[in-house]
Please model this.
Amino acid sequence: MFQKIKAILEAGFVFVEEIARVVSLAFAGKKNLIVFGPAGHGKSEMIKAVVDGLGLDDETFYQFFGEGMDESRLFGGLNFRKLEEEKILEYFPEKSFLNSRVAVFEELFDAPASVLLALKDVLTAKELRNGA
Model:
C-alpha cells in the first residue's frame, strides 16, 4: 500500500515519503492517525488526495472541529423528540463518522475539551455509549 499512496501523493506534492509511510501504516494497521503541523502545508489536501486515489471517497466522513463544535455534532446530532418526550439523551450515530471506514477531522485540536474527551471515550471503548 505504501507504494500506491506514495505514487498518489507524488502526483501533486513534493517530499511525500514520510507522510506516505505513516498513512500506509495507519491504513494497514487500522489505526488512528493525527497529521499535525503549521497551516498551509497541504496536510488536508494530501489526505484528500490519498482518499480519492484509493477510491475511498464514498466511505470517508469529513468533520470540521472549529467554532461551534459540540458533542452532539460529533455524534450526528441530538434526537430532540426522545429528549423532550422521554428525557433520554440520544444521538444519531448514522449521521456521524462512526459508520465510515475513514474519518477526517479538520482542526481537531480547536474542539472544546468536552468534545475531545467524548471522542477519546468512543475511540477507546469502540462504541458509542449514548447512541441509538
Remarks:
- The chain has a mean pLDDT of 91.
- The CA atoms of residues 52 and 86 lie 42 Å apart.
- Helices lie at 2-10, 17-29, 43-53, 71-74, 80-86, 113-125.
